[in-house]
Amino acid sequence: MKRSEQNSIKTEDTILPLGSVVKTGRDPGTLLVIIARAPLTVMNGTTGYFDYGAVQFPYGMTDPAKTIFFNRPDVTEIVFMGYINAEEQSYERTFDEVTKSTDYPHLHL
């Protein structure tokens, strides 16, 4: 996928594949590598999920407690799109259904 195509994707309409590198509005100078989708975490005593869990590029997972959580609307730029095959496409199509059917709340920053 060309960079121009990556940037034209509406990040709120689809879930990005693992391995994607993005920037968020929270820290626009930091590159984040998506390592998890719908990860459970505890925020203010509530267990719930965010759309993504990521680590800082180029450092990777240095400490699980430093995983950065965010949601699709927080993505301001897709720098690199992760690997997509038929299995990934199937997962993307069902992501919203699966997360809406969970008892865990969708957390927001």
Taking strands numbered 1, 2, ... along the chain, how are they ordered across the largest sheet?
6-5-2-1-7
Q: What can be said about the biggest beta sheet?
A: 5 strands, antiparallel
Oligomeric status: single chain
SSE series = HEEEEEEEH
Number of domains: 1
The value of Rg in angstroms is: 14 Å
Which percent range fits the helix content?
A: 10-25%
Tally of extended strands? 7
Count of runs of 4 or more consecutive helical residues:
2
Structural class estimated from helices and strands = alpha+beta
Which overall shape is indicated by the principal axes computed on the Cα atoms? Answer: globular
Distance separating the two termini: 30 Å
pLDDT < 50 stretches: none
Mean pLDDT: 91
Q: Give the percentage of residues in beta strands.
A: 25-35%
Pfam family, one: DUF4176
Protein name: DUF4176 domain-containing protein
